[in-house]
Design goal:
This protein is of the alpha/beta class. The chain has two domains: about 1-110 and about 165-220, Acetylglutamate kinase-like (Carbamate kinase, 3-Layer(aba) Sandwich); about 225-310, Acetylglutamate kinase-like (Carbamate kinase, 3-Layer(aba) Sandwich). It is about 35% helix and about 25% strand. The protein has ten helices and 17 strands. It has helices at about 10, 20-40, 50-65, 70-90, 130-140, 165-175, 205-215, 250, 260-275, 285-290; strands at about 1-5, 45-50, 100-105, 105-110, 120-130, 145, 150-155, 160-165, 180, 185-190, 195-200, 220-225, 230-235, 240-245, 280-285, 295-300, 305-310. The strands form three sheets. Strands 1, 2, 3, 9, 12, 13, 14, 15, 16 and 17 form a ten-stranded mixed beta sheet that branches. A four-stranded mixed beta sheet has the order 8-4-10-11. α2 crosses α4 (about 70-90), α3 (about 50-65) crosses α4 (about 70-90) and α7 runs parallel beside α9. The longest helix has 21 residues, at about 70-90. The radius of gyration is 19 Å and the shape is globular. The protein starts with a strand and ends with a strand.
Amino acid sequence: MRVVVALGGNAILRRGQELNAENQRANIRRAAAELAAVNADHELIIAHGNGPQVGLLALMDAAWSPAHPSPLDILGAETSGMIGYMIEQELGNVVPTEDHIVTILTQTLVDPRDPAFDNPTKPVGPVYGQREAERLCAEKGWSVARDGEYFRRVVPSPLPQRIIEIDAIRILVENGIVVICAGGGGIPTAHDKQGKLHGVEAVVDKDLAGGLLARDLEADQFIMLTDVPYVYEAHGEPEQRAIRSAHPDLLETLDFASGSMGPKVTAACEFVRATGKISAIGRLSELQRIMQGEAGTVISCEHPGIVHCD
């Protein structure tokens, strides 16, 4: 079975943790143990987020050269290489030595006229208290939005149109190689009037890019891993209810946060409708049970409605 697994940013850096190499490596080491079990019996393709990392690099870069900060596409490429290296190494330490793993810096084509450029929603960087967020917004001209009890910088997140390296990825997968790709949703790129590619100032959502990747590779399952066990209806409200399974048409009628669960639900529903296969959203530590349909929220056209957990 061919499985695309999208690791959420919280699988790489837990919410509230200090963003340093030691914490990220320790988290990735735990993720590698779960991924290795999948790799033992299935074709494995790994996508991952980079929101905290790209946001921190942007802060560091602006402090070093405030007049000429690096654009987000360059920072996205840097973080994709860094995270891919750590996943590749930690996974390589727990799978058989004859198994090959490769990281591909992936370019994702977007439409420069996408309305997302006028409505930033993608959280990047560390979390801040309200006062610090307001100060940074005033000083740096950022857009900020609430992220739970904290605030984070938000940037444009245009829809992924095409993965430039998809043919190379497919060749590797078909030859039994574990591929780490579409890191951070892929490096956002667009065509100019002459048809030449160039980077754009944005961060593509890794779940939407992962869903596109899964459809293009004709995956049998598309699984998104995060720090919550289920998709919740009315999340954060007294009446919140965990969703065990759902038909995509009904799931999309519910409201989910645009900067977090919303893209996951959209990506899952698009994959299921396009392929007739199964998608799931759940917690990293339950990956094996999610694949077996015993945990997480399962999205499938075989489910006639929405089933809540007891």
